[in-house]
Amino acid sequence: MCSVISMRILDTAVDAAREDEERFQQLAESVQQRNRELALLYEAGQALNSTLDLDQVLVTVLEETRRLLGVVACSVWLIDPETNDLVCRQATGPNSEMVRHWRLASDEGIAGWVASSGQSLIVPDAFADTRHFEDLDRRTGLVLRSILSAPLRVKEEIIGVLQVVDSEVDRFSATDLRLIESLGVPAAIAIENAR
Question: Residue 180 pLDDT more than 70?
Fold first, then answer.
């Protein structure tokens, strides 16, 4: 009887140790991810402060974002003050040159919705969202499923949208959204300074 109780206690202790090890592993991964995010924010800040060449700054920010999140593509859409259209100022990823300088009406696509509403948005499956602008997929040859968009704001004015896309469904988390929103602050300031 004593042996059975000892075995149960030992099994319970082993299970608890495994759970502690799993929690520790998750915590370590979380810390590593946070460190990568902080490094990206630091690099972006350095790039944003080092030059007034807006395209160079945006390419640096977008490439670092793409690398850190491991996504297909990223883009920055700016509001044209004369027409109120969204214009793709810079993009990275496959066939990004086909998207640069493309115009969307202020209410078109997910980027248009974000610019109009001033709210960030995670779209887990673009195919299921009526706001998705499918011409973008046709033009680039990409199949975009998950979209993460955050408004670029200077003071209280929306000047554009930072957008991250991937071909995997349900790719983005609230943590990814916070990172993009954090990147949007210095990016918006750099855009305004370069203008």
Answer: yes
CA–CA dist 100, 17 (Å, integer): 53
Tokens 């209410």 belong to residue: 107
| pTM higher than 0.70 | yes
| Contact of 146 with 165, CB cutoff 8 Å | yes
Q: Please say whether the beta carbons of 178 and 37 come within 8 A.
A: no
State the Cα–Cα distance between residues 182 and 59, nearest whole angstrom. Answer: 17
Distance between CA atoms of residues 118 and 152, nearest Å: 9
Confidence of residue 75 (pLDDT cuts 50, 70, 90): very high
Helix (H) or strand (E) holding 150: strand 146-154
Q: Beta 73-79 vs 103-104: how paired, if at all?
A: unpaired
φ, ψ of residue 180 to 5 degrees: the values are: -65, -40
DSSP state string for 66-126? HHHHT-SEEEEEEE-TTT--EEEEEEESTTGGGTTT-EE-TTSHHHHHHHHH---EEES-G
Contacts of 10 (CB under 8 A, 6+ apart): none
Residue 155 structure tokens: 């003071």
> Which SS3 state, helix, strand or coil, does residue 161 take?
strand
- Residues 100-143 have pLDDT tens digits of 999 988 888 999 999 999 999 999 999 888 888 777 777 777 77
